[in-house]
Design a protein that fits this description.
The protein is an alpha/beta fold. It contains 28 helices and 54 strands. Among the domains are: about 5-130, Rossmann fold; about 135-290, 3-Layer(aba) Sandwich (Rossmann fold), CATH 3.40.50; about 295-360; about 365-445, Orthogonal Bundle (Arc Repressor Mutant, subunit A); about 450-545, no CATH class; about 580-680, Leucine-rich repeat, LRR (right-handed beta-alpha superhelix), CATH 3.80.10; about 980-1140, Jelly Rolls. Keywords: Hydrolase, Leucine-rich repeat, NAD, Plant defense, Repeat.
Length: about 1250
């Protein structure tokens, strides 16, 4: 067993200078690898780059970077010569370093005509990399990305003078970014200054003179500088290249006085103004603006962790808590830093104690910083800020303007310019940061700390309960915002509770519908008074039958009473000139709508689900501005007023109005019409021709056999007529130039599709379940924009049009077209092709032209006989499923060469990035009870293997699978194989590890679980995994897999890493060599905490699923600082370290297994790695199937492939072949192939895999 740890211990003695360097330049030549000293240096640079974040610049001097990366060509020959006599550990370390460094961005001398220019470029690159922000900004995570973007905007190469504004809300890090930028750029300017000034005097002239004097003194480094008149800045700096940063600017005069014009400064100058006020920048024609955005969720967590833990990530047991606190800070850097500092050094219990306080309050330091921006607003804008913070955060601008008046438009723009709110696009929604929202609520709370009834806004549930319980509301209250789901007991509201709140304008009593069994509000004596000035009444589940008799609505703008107990709103006619929206949806007892003749500005009326409503009042004729009427699910509605024509209508939804028999005639300008589920009769359908500009029509379930002749679909964009009685849509050819979507699914009487030659923009056509349809019209050849065609279940369809190539079609579903015999060929761009349950007999050779095909589903195709091998030439193919298909008698020429596509798979481990092998296939062969052998060339492609109920699998095949490398394997078995040295007859086992340096980061294990079949058919368990405990640390590895279809005991085997840096639990009482494993088997429905924290938190159902584990086993495969250079533990060492219990069986079966593994002498071996040719044959072949796997040694006299297609390393006397993994190797992208209960008749020849750099052409199927 090779180990690099001794060299690791000596590295700083041998190369003391590297660890202190910030950057290394590595110059590769053809002879570079001839020096062991150079290679050792490179390995140390590799270590410093990964462990110390040292920068590396590779320079390739007359050598191909790929030859360095892969150790091929002339460079590879020199490298191989140097490696002779060296240990495997040394060689692997060098290979890792070469691959790692050669994969970095650098310079290739072959791309330069002049070496001097290349050297100058490298020097500039080094200079730029070394000019970084000072360490003062090291804790500001993400500052580098800001600087990169700012440098791009500033364009320092240009000689023009540039002014740049940096804007963003308080606390987002503008000043920190500005200081870091100043620090990184100041060395490139003759004069520079980072300054911040505030107005301290009412004397404008004197104030400006003072600013100029201080400013020039700072820029010119002249302490006692005196000026006597304004304009000195332009005179003194006109010919000087300067860098000026004005920070925290809130006064127009500061910009005007100090940096009024670009002409005041010399060529190449850069002026940066940091402010919250975008309007200030616009006023001074500063067009280059950099808006500091809130950091991403991941970056925010890093910021918080840097303050709370001094690390980039939280300890495992703080992960959830850290995430919650980061969310409370709303991704605001100031909040993240302050909250992190306040929690630093505290234990988990203290964190949990502080969490409610952080949720409800605002840290004093954060409040002080944010309050400055609020205090600078004038009175009206301060009021608007509080309205948004307490009532309107997250609402559209139009909604706020409707409720507060058009005059607030200026204030909204002002708040947005000062970064106190954001207006999101495209819906123009107002968003206020949650810390600013907390600030607003805290300002309101401070108005009357001990008597909430005297505040302007009531937003806290506890305060609202107190006010209604004690009846302490006053005229100060303007708005109530109450989530009734937050109370555990019904809140009693008296009949006169609102009398004291005479100025109340906004009531919002809303319910979080995701919470069940919430208590709600209780009005046992009804309600006799609501304030006259109400503009918004939003009351979910209003419990009374009618509004108060004295309720006045003259100021009412919106009335929303969803799921109320209302039977009617009010008696008589109300003044409703301001009402714009009326929503009573879900009010099942509502029997009538009041007279709305005065609601002349009503725009939206929603009566969805009012199942007791029979008709609408004729007064709706006065609703001249009504645009949207929604009456979905009004099952008792029989008719709409006939004598009413409203020109403003653009949307009517009458879906599910099952008693409605007459066509609605209340508008001729409707653009959206939903009539599905109505009972409109055929003779009444003619009125649809009176609607001239309809764009979206949903008439699913319509009773007409053909659309009326006067129907004009010219403006239609979407047409949906599912479950209709249609026999045909219309006669003749219609203009359909706007049509994009047509859905006629389950129209069982439909016999023909109309001529679609003019539907040139149609993108989606769905005719699923049209069982009378026999053929598609040839006019579909004109559908050049058609992307999805769904004809599933068209049971009479026999053929598709010939000579058609739909150039945009990527999704075609012809499943269950049981008479379809010919493979569809209507587009070469198809990506997803579904042909399940068809009568297709052959997958033709022309399938190779479907170059974009990723998925082919042909399950239960009982007549399928021939599958052309050209199918597997397709480069993008990822999923093929022929399960439960007929007898496949021909799969093409078995001698055809299969190829495998390779891709890089990068994973994050211990905070470092490694390339880890990922094979191409997840193979499912469930219920293939006759399956005995899997070809080795096919086996080598698999990443995971599911062999549920494959009871006849050859024993030697089983042994090979057990000892091979997969993500996971499932196969029948009655006991844990002896291959797993450490075993237990339960779900838990423990043992002592061998004497291996505990400084290693990664330990690789292979595990096996013996599961009995489920006894309960409702036991949908599918999460399998292990929880390990070692040296007081623990972690969990789990994955999803189907184990419910097993008819008898099965084995589940998988690999996992033991990462010594992970820890969730407090230290346990174990010594440093003791390791414990607890295996589990959970239901899909188990919570995350159930899986993460172990069985102690499982539900009873889940606990029962754990009892299915009859035994378990573990085998230690390797230990390593990373998955590369792993010190493989071979069988002999296993026996020495773990005792005689381990015994390698050598039987006749294993000889047969060797033949399966090595193949015949005509076959080539294809496994990851590099080969150098040492002769035509080898008497001994050592196969290390995956890195870290115990070797499987087999005999062979296979002819070796040439070096150009080789995949392993010969060594020693030329009689041994070691196949291992290089970190630069590109691995296979996962694909899936399912062959459930498929009957296969394959030719005897096995298809070799010869080239590992091209896509799959022919899979060796299971036999």
């Amino acid at each position: 067993m090779a180990s690099s740890s001794p060299s690791c211990n000596r590295r700083y003695d041998v190369f003391p200078s590297f660890s202190g360097s910030r950057i290394s330049i590595v110059i590769f030549s053809n002879k570079y690898a001839s020096s062991t000293w150079c290679l050792n240096e490179l390995a140390e640079i590799h270590h410093c780059s990964k462990e110390l974040d040292q920068m590396v610049i590779p320079v390739f001097y007359n050598v191909d970077p790929s030859e360095v990366r892969k150790q091929t060509g002339e460079f590879g020959k020199v490298f191989e010569e140097t490696c002779k006599g060296k240990t495997d550990g040394e060689k692997q370390r060098w290979m890792q370093a070469l691959a790692y460094v050669a994969n970095m961005a650098g310079e290739d001398s072959r791309n330069w005509c002049d070496e001097a220019n290349m050297i100058e470029t490298i020097a500039n690159d080094v200079s730029n990399k070394l000019i970084t922000p000072s360490s003062d900004f090291g804790d500001f995570v993400g500052v580098e990305a800001h600087l990169e973007r700012l440098n791009s905007i500033l364009c320092l190469e240009s000689e023009e003078v540039r002014m740049l504004g940096i804007i963003g809300p308080s606390g987002i890090g503008k000043t920190t970014i500005g200081r870091a930028l100043f620090s990184s750029l100041s060395s490139q300017f003759h004069h520079c200054g980072f300054v911040s000034y505030k107005r301290t005097s009412r004397d404008d002239y004197g104030m400006k003179l003072c600013w100029e004097q201080q400013f020039l003194s700072e820029i010119l480094c002249q302490k006692d500088l005196k000026i006597w008149h304004l304009g000195a800045v332009e005179q003194r700096l006109k010919h000087k290249k300067v860098l000026i940063v004005l920070d925290d600017v809130d006064d127009h005069e500061i910009v005007k006085t100090l940096v009024g014009h670009t002409g005041w400064f010399g060529f190449g100058s850069r002026i940066i103004v940091i402010t919250q006020d975008k309007q200030l920048l616009k006023a001074h024609s500063i067009d280059l603006i950099y808006e500091v955005e809130f950091p991403s969720k991941d970056l925010a967590l890093r910021m918080f962790c840097r303050s709370a833990f001094g690390e980039n990530s939280p300890p495992s047991d703080f992960m959830t808590l850290a995430g919650k606190v980061a969310i409370l800070a709303g991704n605001l850097p100031l909040g993240l830093t302050v909250l992190g500092s306040s929690l630093r050094g505290k234990d988990k219990f203290e964190w949990m104690e502080m969490l409610p306080r952080l949720q409800n309050g605002l840290d004093g330091k954060i409040e002080k910083t944010l309050r400055i921006s609020y205090d600078e607003l004038d009175g009206k804008d301060q009021d608007l800020f509080l309205y948004i913070a307490c009532l309107f955060n997250g609402h559209k601008v139009t909604y706020i303007k409707n409720l507060l008046g058009e005059s607030v438009n200026i204030g909204i723009k002002m708040l947005a310019d000062k970064s106190l709110i954001r207006i999101t696009t495209p819906h123009k929604t107002v968003q206020m940061h949650n810390l600013l929202q907390k600030l607003g609520k805290e300002i309101v709370r401070a108005e009357s700390i001990y008597n909430p009834g005297k505040r302007r806004f009531l937003v806290d549930a506890k305060d609202i309960i107190d006010v209604f319980t004690d009846n302490t509301g006053t005229e100060n209250v303007l708005g109530i915002y109450f989530n009734t789901s937050e109370i555990n007991e019904p809140l009693l509201i008296g009949e006169r509770s609102f009398e004291g709140m005479c100025n109340l304008q906004f009531i919002k009593f809303y319910k979080d519908w995701s919470r069940e069994n919430s208590a709600g509000l209780y009005l046992p004596r009804g309600l006799v008074y609501l304030p006259r000035k109400l503009r918004l009444v939003y009351w979910d589940e209003y419990p009374l039958k009618c509004m108060p008799s004295n309720f006045r609505t003259e100021f009412l703008v919106k009335l929303k009473m969803e799921n109320s107990k209302l039977e009617k709103l009010w008696e008589g006619i109300q003044p409703l000139r301001n009402l714009k929206k009326l929503r009573l949806d879900g009010s099942k007892k509502l029997k009538e709508i009041p007279n709305l003749s005065n609601a002349i500005n009503l725009e939206k009326l929603n009566l969805c689900g009012c199942t007791s409503l029979v008709t609408l009042p004729s007064s709706i004729r006065n609703l001249g501005k009504l645009r949207k009427l929604t009456m979905e699910g009004c099952t008792k509605l029989e008719a709409l007023p006939n004598d009413v024509i409203l020109g403003s209508f653009d949307y009517i939804n009458l879906s599910g109005c099952s008693r409605l028999r007459s066509f609605p005639r209340i508008s001729r300008n409707v653009s959206g019409l939903v009539l599905d589920g109505t009972a409109i009769e055929e003779e009444d359908s003619v009125y649809i021709g009176n609607i001239s500009g309809i764009t979206n029509l949903d008439w699913s379930g319509c009773q007409v056999r053909c659309m009326p002749s006067n129907f004009n679909p010219e403006y239609l964009v979407g047409l949906t007529m599912r479950d209709s009685k249609l026999e045909k849509l219309w006669q003749g050819i219609k203009s359909l130039r706007n049509l994009k979507k047509m859905d006629l699914s389950r129209s069982e009487n439909l016999k023909e599709i109309p001529n679609l030659s003019k539907a040139t923009n149609l993108e989606y056509l769905c005719i699923t379940g049209c069982t009378s349809l026999v053929i598609l019209p040839s006019s579909i050849s004109n559908l050049n924009n058609l992307k999805k065609l769904n004809m599933r279940g068209c049971t009479r369809l026999e053929v598709l049009p010939n000579d058609v190539n739909l150039e945009s079609l990527y999704h075609l579903d012809l499943s269950e077209c049981s008479r379809l015999r010919i493979f569809p060929q209507i587009s070469i761009r198809i990506s997803l092709l579904y042909l399940d349950d068809t009568a297709i007999e052959e997958v033709p050779s022309s399938i190779e032209y479907l170059y974009g095909l990723t998925t082919l589903m042909m399950r239960r195709c009982k007549r399928l006989k021939i599958v052309s091998p050209n199918l597997f030439k397709l480069k993008s193919l990822t999923v093929v499923n022929f399960s439960e298909s007929g007898v496949v008698t021909e799969l093409g020429d078995a001698s055809m060469v299969a190829t495998v596509r390779l891709n890089a798979q990068q994973v994050n481990l211990c905070g470092e990035h490694f390339y880890w092998p990922y094979r191409i296939l997840t193979v499912c062969a469930k219920n293939c009870e006759s399956l005995q052998i899997i070809s080795h060339s096919f086996l080598n492609l698999m990443s995971s293997l599911e062999l549920h109920n494959c009871f006849n699998l050859d024993q030697d095949m089983r042994e090979l699978i057990i000892k091979s490398e997969f993500n996971y394997v499932i196969l029948p078995g009655r006991e844990v194989p002896a291959y797993f040295m450490h075993q237990a007859g339960s779900s838990c086992l423990h043992f002592y590890l061998p004497h291996i340096p505990l400084s290693q980061k990664i330990w690789v294990f292979k595990a096996c679980i013996l599961l009995e079949p489920p006894t309960d058919p409702n036991d949908h368990s599918g999460i399998v995994g292990v929880r390990w405990y070692f040296r007081g640390k623990s972690s969990v590895h789990h994955f999803n897999v189907d184990v419910d279809s097993c008819k008898m005991d099965h084995l589940v085997m998988f690999h996992f890493w033991l990462n010594l840096r992970e820890a969730n639990d407090p230290p346990s009482e174990v010594d440093y060599k003791h390791v414990e494993f607890k295996f589990f088997h959970h239901n899909y429905g188990c919570s995350a905490s159930c899986i993460t924290n172990g069985a102690k938190r499982c539900t009873q159902t889940c606990t029962l699923s754990l009892e299915r584990i009859k035994g378990c086993g573990v085998r230690l495969l390797n230990v390593s600082p990373s998955p590369y250079g792993a010190a493989e533990i071979c069988e002999t060492e296993y026996k020495q370290q773990f005792g005689e219990k381990y015994n390698v069986e050598k039987t006749e079966r294993s000889k047969k297994r060797k033949r399966i593994t090595s193949g015949t002498n005509e076959e080539d071996i294809n496994l990851p790695g590099q080969i150098s040719n040492t002769g035509p044959t080898t008497p001994h072949l050592e196969l290390s199937l995956w890195e870290g796997e115990a070797s499987a040694r087999v005999s062979s006299r296979s002819k070796l492939m040439s070096p150009s297609v080789s995949s392993g390393n010969f060594h020693g006397d030329g009689a041994s072949l070691s196949l291992s993994v290089s970190p630069s190797y590109l691995y296979m992208e996962e694909e899936a192939l399912c062959v459930d209960t498929m009957i296969t008749e394959l030719q005897d020849g096995e298809t070799p895999i010869k080239n590992s750099s091209s896509p799959p052409k022919l899979f060796n199927f299971l036999r």
